[in-house]
Amino acid sequence: MTLNKNLKQLVMDIRKTAGVSLVAVLSVLSMSVPMIMGTPVSAATPPATPGSATAKTDEAASTPQSTGTVQSYASDKPLQVGTVLQLEGSGDKATVSPSKFDKASQMYGVAVDPRSLPVTVSNSGLKNETFVAASGTYNALVSTQNGPIKTGDYVTISAVDGVAMMAQPEQKLVFGRAAANFDGKNNVVSTVTLKDSNGKELNKVAIGSIPVVIDIRKNPNEKSTKTNLPQFLQRLGEAIAEKPVGPLRIYLSIAITGICIIAAIVILYSGIRSSIISIGRNPLSKKSIFRALLEIILTSLIVLIVGLFAVYLLLKL
């Protein structure tokens, strides 16, 4: 009996030892296999969260499409990728349309291909949904209206709606800087013939697509056409008009004031001189001469007052 008990106890000890060893082996294998496959056991990859298409991977950043703010808007018609756009309205009712030359201040961004973005949030309720990049580097339509474009040139909206061109010093705002060259000979998408207000054909320009660093701001190369004006004259004009006044109006006001003062002085001088001569010739007509002199003085004052009032209206209106 004792022998049987000892044998049973020995068998149970062997089973327990084997079980513990098997568990240890399985634990080691479960830790080793993921490490061999290159995946840390504790590093769980979080699921992708839907959101704005502003996040970029390193791979995407190396392409012409680089980091920038992208948002979807409604538009009246389908828009070509690369079209320079302007924003109209605000809030949920905001829409985009091709930017126009006479509304350069409304430039907002460029239409982008959602398939080139790592993350997009689509809104099926938007009419002709258009994804718009307001910053970053994206392909934009450009033309040769102001000549070939070189890398680093500032670009702005051209006479062709939705198409940019090289910015000249006369343009006040720029859309961004070219990140590639466009000479109008290679990578041409289409050509457009420009016309004047009378419909007369001017010249033909080539249109292409190049990456542009979007940075809408005042043209750094703008030449100021503002006339230098003494500070005290500027302050005087603004004090009278109670608003900013252009140099042209101030100079016209000075000219009108000077002419009125000179006219009043001439009238007054000639009247006094004539009165003195008349009194010397006919002392008995002194009263009538003084009456005439008073009328001359009043006339000169009226001329001066009318001139100053005209200056006031010129500055105020």
Structure in words:
With 317 residues, this protein is α+β, with helices and mostly antiparallel strands. It folds into 2 domains: 58-218, Beta Barrel (Virus Head Decoration Protein, Chain: A); 231-316. Helix content is 37%, strand content 23%. It has 5 helices and 11 strands; from the N terminus they run ααβββββββββββααα. The strands form 2 sheets. Strands 6, 7, 8, 9, 10 and 11 form a 6-stranded antiparallel beta sheet that branches. A 5-stranded mixed β-barrel has the order 1-3-2-4-5. Strand 10 (188-195) and strand 11 (201-218) form a beta hairpin. Helix 4 (247-281) packs antiparallel against helix 5 (286-316). Residues 1-7 and 14-64 have low confidence and may be disordered.
Record the SSE blueprint:
Elements: H1 2-36, H2 58-61, E1 70-75, E2 84-88, E3 95-98, E4 107-112, E5 130-133, E6 136-143, E7 154-157, E8 164-166, E9 173-178, E10 188-195, E11 201-218, H3 231-241, H4 247-281, H5 286-316
Parallel strand pairs: 1-3
Antiparallel strand pairs: 1-5, 2-3, 2-4, 4-5, 6-11, 7-8, 7-9, 9-11, 10-11
Helix pairs in contact: 4-5
- Class inferred from helices and paired strands: alpha+beta
Low-pLDDT parts are 1-7, 14-64
CATH class of the largest domain: Mainly Beta
Provide the CATH superfamily of the largest domain: Head decoration protein D
**What is the count of DSSP helices, taking H or I runs of 4+ residues?**
5
Q: How large a portion of the residues is in β-strands, by DSSP E?
A: 15-25%
In helices, the fraction of residues equals: 25-40%
How would a crystallographer describe the biggest sheet? 6 strands, antiparallel
According to DSSP, the number of beta strands is: 11
Radius of gyration: 41 Å
